[in-house]
Amino acid sequence: MRQLKKAIPALLLAALLPLSGCASMLERTVSSAEIHADYPVSSDEDATLRVESYQALVNSILYYVNEHSSSGTLRLYNYEGNAEEDLQRACADVTASEPLAAYGVRDISYLITRILTYYEVELSIQYAHSQATLDSIRTVNGTSVLRGELSAMVEEQSNLSILLLSYFNGDAAQAEALFRLAYYGNPLCCLGTDLPGFTAAFYPEEGQRRVLELTAEWPVSQEAQQKYASQLSAAATALLEAEPLSDTDHTVENLAALLRTHAVWAEDGADNALAAFTGEPVSNTGLILAMEYLCQRANIPVEPVLGTDGRGPWLIVSTPLGYRHLLPQGLIAEEPEASPEPSPEPGLEPGLEPSAEPIQPPEGEPPESDSPAEGEPTAETPDESPSPDDPAPSNPPAESPEPDLEASAGPEDPSAAPEDTDAPEATQAPSPTPAPTPTPKPEEIPLLYTDAELRLMGYQWDASLYHVCVEAELPPETTPQPVENPGENLGDMT
User: Fold this and answer.
1) What is the radius of gyration, based on Cα positions, of the chain?
2) Are 212 and 201 in contact (CB under 8 A)?
3) How far apart are CA 257 and CA 263, in angstroms?
C-alpha cells in the first residue's frame, strides 16, 4: 500500500508536465499577411467593389467602364484622403486620360453616403457609343500597322474604323495624310472623281495610348468601284500582252517607255489610270496611278508620295541603284515637231507681203510683160497688122532710138550706190535675232531622282510617313542636273 501511495503522486506529476508546455504555446502571438492588388476585388453577393486608396478608386471606375456597366457600387474602407474630392478627381482623370473612357463615356455621376466606418458610392455612367461599337475596337501598334488598317479601309470602302492605337505620336493631320496615301496607293479604287471625305479624331488628343476614330464618305458605290477595277485590270492586261515583256524586262524604265507610247497627256485630263491605258486624255495624277499599277503588276515595290507644299502625287520606286523618286513629267510622250513655217524674205518685217517684182526670164527669151507689146491688138485698138494678101511695105518702119537712162536720171547722187543691172537687186541683211531657248523635251527630263536632286528642285515631303527612305547621296556615275521648273511647259502637277 505504501508503495502504491508513493506511485500516485509520481503519476500525477508526470501528467501535469505536458500541460505546462501547452499553456506556453497558447500564450504566443499569431500574425497573418494578405496581398492586396491595386485592382479591387468584386463581391459575388452584391457586386460591390472595395476601395482603400486613390489608385483603387480610379481602377474601380475604369472596371465598370470596361464592362460597359451603367451603374456600380463602391465601398471606401480605411480611406485616408478626402473621399468626395478624390471621387470627383478620379472621374475626371478616367474620362480625360483613359482611351476607352475618353471615347466611350459621355458622363459619370455619383452619390456618396457615410455609413459608420466606411463610405458607400453609387455610380451612374452614361455612354456615347453602344457596347457593340466599343467591342469592335481593334488594337494597333505603330505606323506600319496603322497604314495596313487604312489600306484595308480603302479596299473595303468602309465608312468607320475605330482603333486603339499605341506608339504613334502624330496628330489628326498626319492620320489624314496617311489615309490619302492609302487611297492613292490603290489605283483600283481611284476612279478620278471627287476624293473621299475623311476625318480623324483622337481620344484623348495626346498620350501614348489613344483611340483613333476614322470616318470616310465615298463618292461612288461599291458596285461602281468593282466595275472600274475590272475594267482597269483588263486594260492593263491587254496593254502588256500587246507588247509582252519578259520578267527581266520588267524594269521601271521599260514600263515607263511602254506607258509613254499609249498615254495622251492633257492638263485637264482624267485623274485615273484607265484613261492612260485607253488613249484618253490623262492628267499628271492619272499618269502616276497608271505607272503605279504597272509596277504593282510587275511586283516592283512602289508607293505614292504627297508633298507637304501641295505638290503630288509622285512615286517612290525600287531600282537596282536603290529607291528613287519618279515624277509624272518623265511619263509624258514627246509631241511631234511642227513643220517649220516659211521664213520671210530678207529685209522684210514679219507680217508684210513682198512687193511684186518682175521675174527675170531665162537668157535668150524675151521678157514677159503685163502690158501689150507694140502692134499687138487690144480691146481698144483694132488689129492693124497686115494680112498675108496685102503687099509688103517698101520701107520698113525705123526703130525708135532707146532713151538715155543716165541722161534722164539727172545728176548722180553721190550717196547712192552704183546699180548693177545684170545682178539682182541687193537688199540689206537683217540683224541676227537670238535663238529662243528650246523647250526641254520629255525624253530629256530625267525619269528618276534621289532625295538630294528632288530637294534641289524645291520638293518637300514628310519622310516619316513612308515605308522606305530614298538615299540622299547620288551614285558616282550621275551628276545632278536640277530642273528649275520641270512643269513649266508640261502642265502643273495636279
Assistant:
1) 49
2) yes
3) 10
Q: Which amino acid is at 229?
A: A
Other beta carbons within 10 Å of 111? 9
CB neighbour list of residue 78: distance below 8 Å, 6 or more residues apart: 52
Residues 209-235: tens digit of each pLDDT: 999 999 999 999 999 999 999 999 999
* Residues 19-45: tens digit of each pLDDT: 444 444 334 333 333 333 344 444 444
**pTM, full prediction:** 0.64
Between CA 349 and CA 331 the distance in angstroms is 40
Main-chain phi, psi angles of 118, to 5 degrees: -150, 170
Cα(407)–Cα(475) distance, integer angstroms: 82
Please give the grid coordinates belonging to residue 221: 458605290
Q: Which letter does DSSP use for residue 94 in this model?
A: H
Task: Please state the rounded mean pLDDT for residues 353-367.
Answer: 53
Question: 409 — phi, psi (to 5°)?
Answer: -75, -15
Cα separation, 187 vs 292, in Å, equals: 7
Task: Residue 396: name the closest of 375, 368, 367 by CA.
Answer: 375
Distance CA 307, CA 284 (A): 14
In DSSP notation, 437-472 reads PPPPPGGGS-SEE-HHHHHHTT----GGGSS----S
- What is the pairing mode between strands 314-319 and 322-326? antiparallel
State the DSSP code for 365. Answer: S
Residue 125, strand partner residues: 108
**What is the CATH code for 48-129?**
3.30.1370.230
* All structural domains of the chain with their residue ranges: 48-129, 137-219, 224-334+445-465
Amino acid identity, residue 415?
S
- Strand 209-217, strand 322-326: pairing: unpaired
From CA 144, how far away is CA 112, in angstroms rounded?
Answer: 47
Order of all β-strands in the sheet with 138-141: 138-141, 160-166, 209-217, 197-203
Task: Provide φ and ψ at 454, rounded to 5°.
Answer: -70, -35
Q: Which amino acid, one-letter code, is at 117?
A: T
Helix (H/G/I), strand (E/B), else coil: 222: helix
Helix/strand/coil for 112: strand
pLDDT of residue 346: 54
